[in-house]
Write a structure and sequence with these properties.
Shape: globular
CATH superfamily of the largest domain: Medium-chain alcohol dehydrogenases, catalytic domain
Keywords: Metal-binding, NAD, Oxidoreductase, Zinc
Distance between the termini: 11 Å
Bound molecules: zinc ion
Order of helices and strands: EEEHEEEEEEHEEEHEHEHEHEHEHEHEHE
CATH architecture of the largest domain: Alpha-Beta Complex
Strand content: 25-35%
Number of helices: 10
Helix content: 25-40%
Protein name: L-iditol 2-dehydrogenase
Structural class: alpha/beta
Pfam families: ADH_N, ADH_zinc_N
InterPro entries: ADH-like_C (IPR013149), ADH-like_N (IPR013154), ADH_Zn_CS (IPR002328), ER (IPR020843), GroES-like_sf (IPR011032), NAD(P)-bd_dom_sf (IPR036291), SDH-like (IPR045306)
Number of domains: 2
Number of strands: 20
Radius of gyration: 20 Å
CATH topology of the largest domain: Quinone Oxidoreductase, Chain A, domain 1
Family: Belongs to the zinc-containing alcohol dehydrogenase family.
Length: about 350
C-alpha cells in the first residue's frame, strides 16, 4: 500500500509498504478521508509534542474515515463493505481509567499518529473492532473523519457541564474552537461569543453557531462582554487558543461561580493566573484531554445534517500531495482551517 511517511521533520515521502493484516478482533479499513490536525503539523515541523517524540519515521493522521475491507478472527459486530468513522485511540481496557469510563486517561493507549504509533495518511489501517463505528449512508466521508475533532468539542462542552439556555464564550476559532461552538449550539446555549484575531475565522464561527463575535484586534473584550452580558459575564468559557493571555481572558469572562474549560495547550510549561480572584469567585478550572464515549453520540448529532462541520474544510489533497497540505497549513495560516487528505 502507499503511505505518506514523515522521515524527518519537514520531509514526507510516499512509500510503498506492506498492506496490514487484521489480527483477531481487528478489521482492515481502506481509508477514504483523513483530516490534517494541528498536532500533525506540530510533529511535522518540530518532531515532538511534549513528552511524545518522533524517533523513527512515522505515518501521521488520526482524523480518519474509511470502508471495512477485511475482518479478523472473532469480529462479530462489523462486516465488509461498511463505511466507518475511526476512533483513533485503542486503550488497555484494564487500568482504573479504562474501568471507570475515563479511558482517555489510560496511559497505555495506542493512539494513531502519536509516536511510536503510525496514523492514517496511508491506504489501509487495522483497528480493533470496538473503536470502529459504522456511519449512515447519508453521512459523508469528510464528516465521518471530522468526528474526531468534533469529539474534542463535545467532550469540552460535557466537561463544562453546559446546560440549555446557558451562555458561553469560546477563545480561538481554529477547528477545535469551531467544533466547540457547534457543540455549544447543539447543547442549547443561548449565547455563544466567539473570540479570535482573524475576521475570516469569526465569519466561519457564525456558521458554526456563534451568536456574537469579538475581534481582539478591534475591540476590548472586557467592555464588549460587559455590554452583551449586562456586566454579569458568561456561565462557561472554553479556551481553545492555547495562549496564556486567552486563558486569563477566559477567567475574566465568566460570572462568579462560572466554569473555565482549558482545551488548548499553551506553548509553555507554566502560566501565571489570578488565583485570589479565582478563589473569591469560586471559579472551576477544568482540563480536557481528547475525549471518551463521544463517537456514537457524535454520529447521531451529525446524521441529520443540521450542523455541517465540513464547512471548515479549506483544502483537498491526494495522498501524494500530503507534503503540500502540510506546507499550506504552515505558510498560509490565515486562509487555512482544515485540510483533507484522500488516500482512496
Ligand atoms: Zn486532531
Ligand atoms: Zn487503560
Amino acid at each position: 500500500m502507499k503511505a505518506a511517511v514523515l522521515e524527518h521533520p519537514l520531509t514526507i515521502s510516499i512509500k510503498s509498504l506492506e498492506r496490514p493484516v487484521p489480527n483477531a478482533g481487528e478489521v482492515l479499513i481502506k481509508i477514504t478521508a483523513v483530516g490534517l490536525c494541528g498536532s500533525d503539523v506540530h510533529y511535522y515541523e518540530h518532531g515532538k509534542i511534549g513528552r511524545f517524540v518522533v524517533e523513527k519515521p512515522i505515518i501521521l493522521g488520526h482524523e480518519a474515515a474509511g470502508e471495512i475491507v477485511g475482518i479478523g478472527e472473532g469480529v462479530t459486530s462489523l462486516s465488509v463493505g461498511q463505511r466507518v468513522a475511526i476512533e483513533p485511540g485503542m486503550t488497555c481496557g484494564e487500568c482504573e481509567f479504562c474501568r471507570d469510563g475515563t479511558y482517555n486517561l489510560c496511559s497505555e493507549v495506542e493512539f494513531l499518529a502519536t509516536p511510536p504509533y503510525d496514523g492514517a495518511f496511508c491506504e489501509y489501517v487495522t483497528m480493533r473492532e470496538e473503536v470502529v463505528y459504522p456511519i449512515p449512508d447519508s453521512m459523508s466521508d469528510e464528516t465521518a473523519a471530522l468526528i474526531e475533532p468534533f469529539s474534542v468539542g463535545l467532550h469540552a462542552v460535557r466537561r463544562g457541564t453546559l446546560t440549555e439556555g446557558e451562555t458561553v464564550i469560546i477563545m480561538g476559532m481554529g477547528p477545535i474552537g469551531l467544533m466547540a461552538a457547534a457543540n455549544a449550539r447543539l447543547a442549547g446555549a443561548s449565547m455563544i461569543v466567539a473570540v479570535d484575531l482573524e475576521e475570516k475565522r469569526l465569519d466561519m464561527a457564525r456558521q458554526f453557531g456563534a451568536t456574537h463575535t469579538v475581534n481582539l484586534r478591534e475591540g476590548k473584550l472586557e467592555e464588549e462582554l460587559a455590554h452583551i452580558t449586562d456586566g454579569r459575564g458568561v456561565d462557561l468559557a472554553l479556551e481553545t487558543a492555547g495562549h496564556p493571555d486567552a486563558l486569563r481572558q477566559a477567567i475574566q469572562a465568566v460570572r462568579r461561580g462560572g466554569r473555565v474549560v482549558i482545551v488548548g495547550l499553551p506553548p509553555v510549561d507554566e502560566v501565571s493566573l489570578p488565583v485570589p480572584y479565582m478563589v473569591d469567585s469560586e471559579l472551576k478550572l477544568i482540563g480536557v484531554f481528547r475525549y471518551h464515549h463521544t463517537y456514537p453520540d457524535a454520529i447521531k448529532l451529525l446524521s441529520d445534517g443540521k450542523v455541517d462541520i465540513t464547512q471548515m474544510i479549506t483544502g483537498k489533497y491526494s495522498l501524494e500531495e500530503t507534503g503540500a497540505a502540510f506546507q499550506a497549513a504552515i505558510h498560509d495560516k490565515a486562509n487555512t482551517l482544515k485540510m483533507m487528505i484522500y488516500p482512496g
